[in-house]
Amino acid sequence: MCGIAGIVHANLREPVNAELIEQMTRKLQHRGPDDFGVWVEGGVGLGHQRLSIIDLTGGHQPMAVNDEAFWVTYNGEIYNYLELRSALAENGHRFQTQCDTEVLLQMYAAHGQDCLKGLNGMFAFGLWDVREQRLFAARDRLGIKPFYYYWDGQLFAFASEPKALLEHPRIAAEVDRDALEDYLNLQYCLGDKTLFKGIRRLLPGHCLSLQDGHLQVRQYWDINFANDTNFALGGFTEELQDLLRDAVKLRLRSDVPVGAHLSGGLDSSAISCLAAEQLPGRLQVFTCGFKDAGRYDETRYAKLVSEHIGAAYHEYFPSAQDLADTFEKLVYWLDEPVAGAAVFPQYFLSRLASENVKVVLGGQGGDELFCGYARYLVGYLESCLQRSIYGTAPMAGSVRLEDIAPNLDYLGGYEPMMQHFFADGLFTDPADRYYRLLLSTRRSQEMDDILRPDLKPAGYSTHEAFREAFMAPETDDLIDRMTYMDTKDHLQSLLHLEDRTSMAVSLESRLPLLDHRIVEKTFAVPASARFAAGKPKFLLRQAIADWVPAPIMDRSDKMGFPVPIFEWFQGALRPYVEEVLLGQRTAQRGIFNMVAVERCLRSEKPFGRTVWGLMSLELWFRNFFD
After folding, report:
1. Single pTM value for the model
2. Around Cβ 593, how many Cβ atoms within 10 Å?
3. What is the signed CA dihedral for 124, 130, 132, 134, rounded to 10 degrees?
4. Active site includes 99?
5. Domain-located, residue 21
6. Are residues 31 and 160 in contact, defined by beta-carbon separation less than 8 angstroms?
7. Which residue spans within 171-281 are E strands per DSSP?
8. Domain boundary among 219, 246, 273
9. Residue 140 lies inside a defined structural domain of this protein
10. Domain boundary residue among 435, 456, 489?
11. H runs (alpha helix) in 295-390
């Protein structure tokens, strides 16, 4: 895992400043403290900070092959590099190292831009083709590794994190008002926007080329809802089991110690069980909990799984003071305040793991792939109702409402939200209804009054942008659209968090469930089978039932990664919150309506997400604008 940076001038006769490339690259030292390198030739410069995982001595970057015909700076892991290396060697390609970086370069030498089709991994890279005088850059299919860029027609700059791009004197920190509107509504930005005006994200499954001053961005991979008409549960379960085992096996390839995050939920428990089965020696597992807020604590489940697999167990209990001490720095590591309060325990979990191993496996992606969110039940119930009333609803198939009643015990406290949703425009436009559902769970109306009016975008609507993305996939199935939207947008905010919290402590995080083979296989299954009879993670449960302890399989109290921010903001952290949000520095900035902020804080029950969002925005301005 590494940090990458680069500059390409449209006019290749305009030389790149080597000191500037070094300055941008050094900003990413936390991502790769083991090695540093810069290569500059005319109007092109590449920089690299390396976290050494494979071939600890031979993987220096930027790296070149074929008499320096191709140069690359690359972040990530190509898990099937040994198989690719063997095939390339049989076709006459020679190798000087044992690392996957050289395999990537030789894949490009052999196949050009089509090399992406053969890569199984997480990656973001910038490759300079000296012969063609062309930059080729790409990001992995699911967007696990980040790639940010700036292009004004003359200057193209890219990096693993926006903070590195801001080191360039021609790239200034300015708020993108459209992106800010997205963030206030959804806690993430839609499309390729970032909160920094002019800095874009290369989207998952996309690549770009820059040649002769012309930039071209294209999509090379997408989710395909093939809806396999020959689907049979037994056969699929066996195939999914094989894929899960192989995905974990590939991600255990490492020349440094490997551990696993273990929350006690289905996803991380399954990955930990498979890793312990295949890893020589004893697996180390890591978890976080909250001692002073028992209903947020899952450590008892993590201990149960750890004992089941004979793992070395590590735990940490972050406190309210930990949050006060690290909040501003966390926003710095994030670059953008996305995904809510889960960043806090995730950071301490990564820090705990980094003290013991250099690579961890995690369970990210299971909710999106296998329908793990309670909100999917809304779409499912609506289709069942529609079929009951009108006699047809593709998603529900032959399922009746009474068939799913036994599977609803996991709803917990969601009933009021469900009732409100069903009372509001039943059977109306699904894009509008899903947007309203996400709004009701992620934002407060108070934000409309708190933010300065002139920060509102002109001529842009998050709602309309959401609708366009929601309707993009070629499917008529509501669950398909919901999971597509969550994988392409919501999951990106979680992967953003995963990348930044691990890289902040120089830890590599690998996510077996997001192996593209598993994604393609799962999304080809009809939604009626993926969310069979309203049962979350139905297909995954069938596959892992023999691996994971029964108490984990039988859990109905799915938690995600909750944080007691409401209790803390009301209690121990109230002085800290008031100091930040009501202080002179915030007031002088003029971003917030201070009367509305004070009213929010003085109310009997301030909305936890609203306060978190305000704190994050103010600390973001302090980090990147002051």
Report:
1. 0.93
2. 15
3. 40
4. no
5. yes
6. yes
7. 199-201, 206-211, 214-219, 258-261
8. 219
9. yes
10. 489
11. 299-309, 320-334, 343-354, 366-369, 376-390
